[in-house]
Model the fold of this input.
Amino acid sequence: MSYRTVVGLEIHVQLMTKTKAFCSCRADVFELPPNTAICPVCTGQPGALPIVNSSMIDYAVKIALALNCVIHEYSRFDRKNYFYPDLPKGYQITQYFYPVATDGYLNIDVDGQIKKIRIRRLHIEEDAGKLIHEGDSITQAQYSLVDMNRCGIPLVEIVTEPDLSSPREARIFVEKLRSILRYLDVSSGDMEKGALRCDANISVVDELKGIQSNRVEVKNMNSFRFIEKALEYEEQRIIEVLKSGGTVEKETRGWDLATKTTVSMRGKEEESDYRYFPEPDIPPIIISQDRIDQIRSALVELPDQKIDRFVTQYRIPKYDATVLAANKEIADFYEECVKLIDKPKEVSNWIMTEMLREMKQLETEQINISPAHLVELFFLMEKGEISIKMAKEIFPEIFKTGKMPKQIIEEKGMRQISDEKVIEEIIKKAMTQNPKAVEQYKSGKTNILGYFVGQVMKETKGSANPQIVNEIARRLLEG
Ligand code: ADP
Ligand code: MG
Ligand code: ZN
Done:
């Protein structure tokens, strides 16, 4: 236990504005053919002048407010100069010297413990284009193609302090951040599509020797799982280097999916390499207190607030509230359901187990059913028309097909047998077939009741109402 891990994150978020950061090209380019959403501004033609997209500023302010940041009245754009084929201008417009916001925090829940992760800064910048390597391999490709559609898409970069102390905490942080971005409706947050990109800095402190390793920057992690996996790998690698008495290189490494390892990409570049200087073509950004107040008053309820409200309003455990509130659609679905049926804990259980399992299995983030589907299922259980077991059986079908529960029950002929006569018949038959069991019951071995209940379940293929079966069996055996 003498090693302590230190992680800080730099996260890039694509904003879902209608148009790009500094021109009027559309910003939702993900599925467009290459180079069809470009213009002289975003491709850096000589003489083209940028114009600031004001909803981009509003989106950034929204995020900054949700992350409890100080929003600065004055911010400014700078040029970050470097050469790469996906950057036709030869520089990226970003905010280096005067970011739009600083000094925030986000609380994360680590196994029920609240941990405060400080946000160092939040700034706005533009995205670069995309290189498509022949055969998808940068090392083996004969040539690469350039798609500039992504040039100039607005990004917010969020930089944390190194307050995270494990790969898992890093993952929890990014999950929470994405949930907030979706609540705010400012980004899709899809890591697979590159709408949320996370670079992680990691170092390890050897507490016995009192030394801290250099930090390594890890890139290319395009899912929550890979953030955790890549950092776990890197953590171990650094510890091994420390153990063997070596020094950890300050470098940038990439997560390699094929080998499930991190591989060295390059030595870490220094800030001075970029020759940052103020962007001469864009005036400073002035954000008035009025504008901030307006945006603040229009903010939706955020996950943490929702969790607190769910706990008090529906009296469900905080754990439940946390799971439900992680996804706004699920939280809304839950509330619609409990408006229709007053069983807050039962509905919560159902969503957390049956529904989330279905979504996971179908690999969807979409809720394919309406609250009416689940509520009907609950009413059918309540009326004894189906058992919980049957409800669990048909739920996947409901979720897959979108059919109402009643229809599926009809189609499958699954109705629960609550007909007392039918149940009585079966028990009576079992009693004549097995008089010994009846005697045992009468002599006080009342747990033999289970045998008769079991007989009924066997005969009806599990579709008898267990409560009614129990009652009738007891009545007949005692009579
Ligand atoms: P750079 O100038 O190299 O980008 P910054 O000081 O801007 O470095 O920090 C970048 C990120 O690295 C931040 O998220 C920060 O939290 C993180 N970081 C800084 N020091 C460490 C460290 N010793 N171990 C892990 N992460 C660190
Ligand atoms: Mg930095
Ligand atoms: Zn453009």
The chain has a mean pLDDT of 93. The first strand starts at residue 3 and ends at 14.
